[in-house]
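quick one if you have a minute, typing this from the bus. below you get a single protein, a line of residues and a line of whole numbers that encode the local backbone shape. could you go over both lines and see whether the tokens make sense for that sequence. anything you notice is useful, everything is just below.
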Amino acid sequence: MSEDQKTMELAFGRILRLASRPEQAGDIAEYERCRKLFLNAAERDGFNATVRGIGNHRPGFNFGAMVD
């Protein structure tokens, strides 16, 4: 596992932990920090998060059409 993949895994896990409990002071800043870490690591790792890059998990897939 690359360093960027590990960063994404840890940042996403932290975001999920933040969402699993009632809001506390500083949560928004922590979310933004983890989001930035995740997106920067994803970009370096070549992760494509555009709608066309997601694959079959998008509206319209089951009907044979692509939604733009």
